[in-house]
């Protein structure tokens, strides 16, 4: 099956059909999936002049023109907050089973609800696990192992996560790599055992799938998600067989480095560069890098950021706020 092949999972005949059949009409694939059909999509690519590594003549650069979009995935293309929160609860139960002995269904529901509010602070998926544990520690004093949980409010987590994160990781003696690995494994298990349930916990923001399909620009996905998950969602939720070499996922380096890589590619010379993000801090990192001065930067108004961050971004000359209808229009 397509999803299984993408994710390196066991084939599960009939699964994709059931899953796609259950999706709302707006996200149903409009044509058969499969790599052979990719030519029918309109993520059109101008072939590199002279091949990789050869310098593109200036006149040819001017003639090429066109736009290049580097798009974040979660919070720009895909609303994965429900999925990532549920995956985090599943993973936290594996990692700290004793922590959940006193967590009942009502508290679990409360945790998932708070995760929606806290989503803007999450840069990489594994942080969801830390937030889940912190929320449990706030609620249940007897399981508390961090010095910060007592009396901590959701607002304080939102405002101070960058300081709280290293503190709790240290106090819980956790390391990033094993949490990243666990989070990935829990997702893989969920996908393998309940593909339609996993896909159903995600949704594409209205219009983004069509905008991707119809885009006449060079489009790349630059995400902190593991590439295989982004690729699977593009395929299964939107019917887009997005080329894997155009997805820069977790492990391909910081976004500022990926943007530098993209702008250096000979086939991208002369293009107008656009980077679309929902995380204000990531855009600020781009601004700090003089080599990225040519990128147009956009903070989306529909993703995982706060009103306060949008107001701050509006005051930064380099950043444009963009709403969903304008984004779809611009990408097409
Ligand atoms: Mg994002």
UniProtKB/TrEMBL annotation:
InterPro entries per the UniProt record, alphabetical:
HAD-like_sf
For this entry, list what GO says about its biological process: SNARE complex assembly
GO CC terms in record: endosome; lytic vacuole
Show the coiled coil region(s). Answer: none
Q: Which GO terms describe its molecular function?
A: SNARE binding
Q: Which domain of life is it from?
A: Eukaryota
Q: Which organism is it from?
A: Paspalum notatum var. saurae
What is this protein identified as? Uncharacterized protein
